[in-house]
Amino acid sequence: MKHLIPEFDVMRRRYPAEATSSMVLPCLHRIQQERGHVADSDIAELSAYLGVPRIQIEEVLSHYTQFRRAPIGRWHLQACRNLSCSMRGAEGVIEHLSARLGIAPGQTSGDGRFTLSTVECLGSCGTAPVLMVNEAYHESMTPARLDALIEGLSRSGATP
Amino acid sequence: MTGRKLIMTFPVTATSHLLQDYRARGGYATLDKVLREMRPEQVTKEVAASGILGHGGAAFPAGRKWGVIRLNDGLPHYLCANADEGEPGTFKDRWILENAPHLLLESMLISAFALQVRHAFVYIRGEFDLPYRRLAAAVEEAYAAGYFGQQPLGTDFACDIVIYRGAGSYVCGEASALITSIEGKKGYPRNRPPRLTVRGLYQRPTVINNVETLANVTAIVSMGGEAFRQIGTPKSPGTQLVSISGHVQRPGVYEVEYGYPLARFIREDCGGGLHGTPIKCIVPGGISTKVLTAAEIETLTYDHVSLTKAGSGVGSGGMVVIGEGTCMVRLLQILLRFYHHESCGQCTPCREGMGWMHRIIDRIVAGDGRPQDIEQLIRISIANDGTTICGMGDAAGYATLGIIAKYRDEFEYFIEHKRSRLDGRLEVANHG
């Protein structure tokens, strides 16, 4: 994490002086963006950099579902299964992905390429069903579009 | 057409979200006028006169919230735009973030001036990628143009802004949890009093408004609060961005003037049920508002008085249309799974109650329902109401009570026959 400190210092300039503790989430986001997850060493170093207790960082990591403590697949497929998506075919999307990738939600494929998750409302109900692939939304998914997507992702590199 | 427009007033193009286009539409002229000609308290007076109600779900009058801030208390004040749009069925703030980010920023600068705020925040849900990138780019454009930072436009008013990204926690859309989250902690709601306008972020007076509420401030100040009040109905001034989804022919975001006929909106403006499917019921404003049957919506207008009188509400503007043939038992199962998943665990009635309700509905759907399960769901919903720090547990109860009250026969059938009367369907068929 230490090499990110100059970046964190720049980020802090727009925060009020009393808001050092606020930096926990943005710093963790940046760390995870780079490493793919947050490692034990990151927690210790962030705690030292910000002067916030380690337990605060641990609590944040356990409370927010987007933070990860362990690596996952190259492509993280997150299928929404809340109300509007379920009403427009989300169950079929999840079954299709499961069958095609040979993994259940929560699992990562053997080659480390794909992790499949189910999530609650992504705020994309008008273009349901929606699938989030890493950061990007893929909307109005159909089996044909899922197949095209997976084929495209399979051809891309196994590492970022 | 769905009445007069205040937000969706321009055609969306490849560049309509950029500063240049926003300025060409008259953007930042209101800020300029405010900084040159108005005093902070005059701005607050206009917002109060407009009668605008919060657009995040609770419909609290924004002017009353702002009125709590004492300009000369010597304390730093904070302003937060709540862009943690997460109420299932709701995607209207995303429209503003993606298509009109500068409208939000200009409105926030005007609001920051009115409330004497040096540091403003936009709390945006972590999953929102395009909205974040659009807003972040707009912030940099606005800094480069001199609106943010030290002394924008050569005045002695200065404001910085931070876009703060959440990380996947529904409860952080609740204002006090949002503040705890901006403080870099797990998103636990806080007990009130003290109100957040008295002691909010870092124990400072803090105003938190929904994105759409804030986005209206530019129009309110530009036309004057009294003129704004002429739009909509006397008790629901202005317009509402309605995001409509589910079994509807033309889903999307629509700006609806309050008072517009509800059935006409769904049938004519949104094309009615998907593939011509008759409508069974609607969720009018996010899943926490009670469902309204097809017969009920016929006589209603889209405003707070009308929907509240019908036992439901405008809520977050997230409307979900549910077609005939949809199994309400499985539908409730989705909602209760969601509430259980999102309970932060701080308060016992919600932490335990959500899990309990989720287990009961799972049991019914699995064909193992017991005759007393319906009463048990009702009992938990009622017992939880008002016993927790935030309203999440209450909301789960409202949704449950609303569905059971109108579709109890489907639950009774499911328990007695160990299967859905409607084959557990959530989707509608395309006969076209």
Q: What letter string, H or E per element, gives the SSE order of chain A?
A: HHHHEHHEEEH
Low-confidence runs of at least 5 consecutive residues of chain B: none
Strand percentage of chain A: 5-15%
Rounded to an integer in angstroms, the radius of gyration calculated over CA atoms of chain B is 22 Å
Greatest interface and its participating residue counts = A-B, 46 and 60 residues
Tally of domains of chain B: 3
Which oligomerization state do the chains in this entry correspond to?
heterodimer
What is the overall number of helices of chain A?
7
Determine the CATH topology of the largest domain in chain A.
Glutaredoxin
What would CATH call the architecture of the largest domain in chain A?
3-Layer(aba) Sandwich
Largest sheet of chain B, in brief, is:
5 strands, mixed
CATH level-two architecture of the largest domain in chain B: 3-Layer(aba) Sandwich
The helix count of chain B comes to: 18
For this structure, the CATH topology of the largest domain in chain B is Rossmann fold
Strand content of chain B: 5-15%
Strands side by side in the biggest sheet of chain B = 6-5-11-8-9
N- and C-termini, Cα separation of chain A: 18 Å
* Inertia-based shape of chain A: elongated
